[in-house]
Write a structure and sequence with these properties.
- About 45% of the residues lie in helices and about 10% in strands.
- It contains 25 helices and 17 strands.
- The strands form five sheets. Strands 10-11-17-13-14 form a five-stranded antiparallel sheet, with no helix packed on it. A four-stranded mixed sheet has the order 3-6-8-7. A four-stranded antiparallel sheet has the order 9-12-16-15, with no helix packed on it.
- It is globular and about 90 Å long.
């Protein structure tokens, strides 16, 4: 393997060590995962991430850089990067890298000064500042850490889906199939590099903790629930976190109302109270990030777009779009695939097909519709699937509620489909299900798949991606026939559920392994001549790029400040300020133009990067001409702090991401202004005494009298201090109420004997 080094084994060894700790911790304090099952999960991780964890490759779409100046001369790779994953290097990685840099410097990650005019960092969910699955990858450089975090997400989804289903009374084989259906399904693996995958990975942990709290109600279980809820609340994508948390609350309510297992009503209510307390304590500990986000969110571009009234859909849209909304759940490639550029579905493959859990799992889920006996939470799962399908169908009027008209509902939908499939497998394992419905359901699903792939070609060119569509139709049919045969012939047999689980895993790996292609490490953000020039000469001012060159946020990965910003959490006021130089939008990415506009010096922009063949007119001066890009210098850019309508001088002494310190000598009263965005968190101190902070447009400013002053601009989010107080109270209460008490001497196990092992509840109908 070219360029391989023994150090490249470290990510895999780290993930392996964490997996062993998880395995032993669950066996010691909670429910054990059988060794063969855990080995199957490990094999799945090795197939998905082997080149990344052990081969030195990078799980980021680095090949996508070749489409932009100054990276057009990079060599192509095989396979090519997934074009859908541009956000991973243009949005997610820069935010995560900024948070990592702050932690490494020993300071709170409060402010990101390198994007736009600066923007909050702790309040930006994309940065995942306190997300445990991201923090566990911090021992490695941020480029390698992406693969570690991805592996931990899949591991958590697999392990805790399995344990949750076992806690609800299912056997190991059906639970393994359900865990594969969800953990290797579309929502986890298609969104693997985004923060969206965090709630998908952590929701099963919360559900497992809720199931244990319902059945035992011990302190250790409540502590697990609090930890899981804390991680879920900091998932990084507000909509997905909302759906996941709402489903968890629905499960909590349903299991409280369910008295079929003979638990007295008073005990169920007491355990509901304890679980609610654990959830509240989790919210309190997460308060520094949550309150900062809630305070900043109304100022963002995302909030502005949510407030905009939705356009009324055309009269024919409901019927015409219904197939495009539902079919990708069963046939993800029926409308092409965005990885191959051509997709004629509703949005893109990630958005539309993330509900796919495998043909075998879908068949077994359908077979459960007519079951007479139900497992715990199975009726809730059926109701959730029905509700999600109705909302995803986009009935008239649903567009008026933006949070409901979201494809993120495919998260609870896919988890419930996986659970319903496991329930059906349990019935077949116990010999309770009949064989003839298999033929009926299989024929119906085969008809749907054939209609999906044969009747929905590209409207402009029916032959486009024909090989992909027909090839996947054949694969679906193969897996469907094999699943039907296993169900019919293996009814009541012990080997049948593991065989179906293997079938589910094989299909999902075949479908989703190409969605996250590893990239060679030599493409990991190389430093060419133009970038080297900017790093040597930019200093404390900013740069920008014209058109689609050097996409926004990428400069921050090189330690450069860029006046552009691409982020749904970008300040709306700053986006409106830069409208005169924003000549176009490429999806949600701003494209700057008008290079001689006076707004550039006001924003502190010193250099403009363009394609090497571009020529700009005076007063811009060509500062660097290279084969990769040209760099043009803007004369007299304004510094970070300067005076307006005043006589005097400003000496900027020290700058930190969340602090500016300057010495001022004012001969007249005037306005000290800046090019730093004011979200309400910037404080102004004059000679160490706080004064009222003003604004100059969207920027921090302060009116000062004549004299000599020391001025400090200090950033503290308005919700941060209150959040820290709540977190401290939550931690203190959690330590007192949720931490397991040490056993009394009389309760200690006898020498030479282990403690009592946790037992799963028996499956209904099983002795």
């Amino acid at each position: 393997m070219p360029g391989w080094h023994p150090v490249d084994l470290l990510p895999g060894l780290w993930v392996g060590a964490l997996a062993v700790l998880l395995y032993r911790g669950l066996r010691r304090w909670y429910d054990p995962v059988p060794a063969p099952v855990f080995a199957a999960f490990g094999l799945s991780l090795a197939i998905l991430f082997g080149p990344v964890l052990f081969g030195g490759q990078i799980l980021l779409p680095l090949d996508n850089l070749r489409g932009h100046v100054p990276f057009t001369r990079l060599p192509p790779t095989e396979p090519h990067g997934n074009i859908l994953q541009g956000d991973l290097i243009e949005l997610v990685a820069p935010s995560v890298a900024a948070a990592r840099e702050a932690w490494a410097d020993g300071r709170w990650p409060l402010w990101n000064p390198r994007t736009g005019a600066g923007m909050p960092l702790l309040a930006d969910p994309q940065a995942q500042v306190l997300q445990p699955l991201v923090l566990l990858s911090y021992p490695f450089p941020w480029m390698r850490a992406a693969g570690v975090t991805a592996a931990l997400r899949v591991l958590a989804a697999l392990v805790f889906s399995f344990l949750w289903m076992r806690r609800l009374g299912l056997g190991a084989g059906p639970s393994l199939a359900g865990a594969f259906a969800f953990g290797l399904g579309g929502f986890v693996l298609l969104w693997l590099g985004w923060p969206i995958a965090n709630p998908a990975a952590l929701l099963p942990l919360v559900l497992y903790a809720l199931a244990r709290c319902r059945q035992t109600g011990g302190r250790r279980d409540l502590l697990l629930l609090a930890i899981g809820a804390f991680a879920l609340l900091l998932g990084g994508h507000p909509e997905t976190v909302l759906y996941a948390f709402a489903f968890a609350l629905a499960v909590l309510l349903a299991q409280t109302l369910d008295g079929s297992d003979g638990v007295p009503r008073a005990l169920r209510l007491r355990r509901l109270r304890d679980a609610a307390l654990a959830l509240l304590l989790a919210g309190a500990v997460a308060a520094p990030a949550l309150l900062s986000t809630l305070d900043y969110l109304p100022q963002t571009l995302r909030a502005a777009r949510l407030r905009e009234p939705a356009e009324p859909p055309p009269a024919t849209r409901y019927g015409a779009d219904l197939a495009r909304r539902w079919l990708p759940i069963a046939a993800p490639n029926a409308y092409g695939n965005s990885r191959f550029v051509h997709y004629w579905g509703l949005s893109n493959t990630n958005e539309d097909a993330s509900g796919f859990v495998g043909t075998a799992a879908l068949l077994t889920a359908l077979l459960g519709l007519g079951a007479r006996k139900r497992f715990p939470q199975e009726r809730l799962a059926l109701a959730t699937v029905a509700l999600c399908l109705i909302v995803l169908a986009n009935p008239p009027g649903i567009d008026r509620v933006p949070l409901l008209a979201s494809r993120r509902l495919l998260l609870p939908l896919s988890l419930c489909l996986a659970y319903l499939a496991a329930c059906t497998l349990q019935r077949f394992r116990q010999g309770e299900a009949r064989r003839w419905p298999v033929l009926l359901a299989g024929a119906g699903l085969a008809a749907v798949l054939a209609w999906a792939y044969l009747s929905h070609p590209n409207p402009e060119d029916p032959a486009r991606l024909e090989v992909l569509r027909f090839g996947w139709l054949h694969w679906h049919m193969r897996f469907l026939v094999l699943a039907a045969l296993l169900l019919a012939l293996g009814r009541g047999r012990r080997w049948m559920p593991p065989a179906v689980a293997g079938l589910v895993a094989a299909e999902l790996l075949l479908a989703h392994l190409p969605a996250n292609p590893p990239m060679p490490k030599h493409l990991a953000f190389p430093v060419n001549d133009s970038i080297r020039f900017l790093r040597q000469n930019l200093g404390q001012v900013r740069m920008a790029a014209l058109g689609r060159a050097f996409p926004p946020n990428l400069a921050s990965l090189y330690g450069l400040s860029d006046a552009r910003v691409y982020n749904p959490m970008a300040p709306r006021a700053y986006v409106e300020l830069t409208a005169p130089i924003t000549i176009a939008w490429w999806s949600e990415v701003p494209e700057f133009g008008a290079p001689r506009h006076p707004l550039y010096p006001r924003l502190g922009v010193r250099y403009l990067l363009t394609a090497p063949e571009d020529r700009l007119r005076r007063p811009l001066r060509l500062a660097h001409a290279g084969a990769d890009a040209s760099i043009w210098e803007i004369p007299d850019p304004l510094p970070s702090l300067f005076l307006r309508n005043a006589q005097g001088e400003v000496q900027l002494r020290r700058t930190f991401p969340e602090r500016y310190q300057a010495r001022l000598g004012l001969r007249t009263n005037g306005l000290l202004t800046s090019s730093v965005y004011q979200d309400g968190g910037w404080k102004v101190l004059v000679n160490r005494e706080r004064v009222a902070a003003g604004t100059d447009g969207p920027f921090v400013a302060a009116r000062l009298p004549a004299g000599r002053w020391r001025v400090d601009l200090l950033y503290r989010p308005r919700g941060f201090v209150a959040g820290c107080v709540l977190a401290a109270v939550g931690l203190a209460l959690g330590m007192g109420t949720l931490t397991p008490r040490p056993p009394l001497p009389s309760a200690l196990p006898s020498p030479g004997r282990g403690g009592e092992k946790q037992q799963f509840p028996p499956s209904p109908g099983r002795a």
